[in-house]
Amino acid sequence: DHRLLQIFCVDAKINRQNDRWIDSDPDEVPIIRRTKFPAGVHVLEVMSSEGDIMPPHFFAKGQNVNKEVYLDVMQTVVKPWMTQIAAGRPYLYQQDGALAHTSNLVQNWCLENLDMFWSKEFYPPSSPDLNPCDYNLWGVLERDTNKRAHNTVDSLKAGIIQAVANLSREQVAHAVGRFWHRVEAVIVKGGSWIE
To answer: Which of 23, 133, 167, 194 has CB 3.0 to 4.6 Å from 28, enough for a Cys bridge?
Structure first.
């Protein structure tokens, strides 16, 4: 299982590198309005190698995801979901190197309560190339969710929920299945970035 936190905002996203307009009439160029400090939501996702994906968990507005908050979500949301999905089969839990994840409190809980997990000593620091959420999931969800601006945070949340529901098991399994190929590519590069 793989997981990660992501922050989505209500503004539409454009790619400044790819989304360009060339026109002799300035009135034909669309105006992209931006909010100075757009509202957003902090989301936690977990997905499995078999294509299962947990319904998005939204943290409360302004909630700092520290080790206590993260551990509470692990105990009350993530672990019950993984237990249900695994249905008695063993599983391996991977998380990145965020401070809340690498705290002794969370690491000890994972050691005592999860079948297997990658400890902070095993997972390479600053390795988005090795996290399926980073190299696949967040880009797909952001593309689908932020095609247009959302008037409210509730509208944004509904868009995220719908985008997650639209992901096929095959799509999720393929993203996670690329993991070992990516590990091998990082090894070939001597631990450097692969993208």
So the answer is: 23
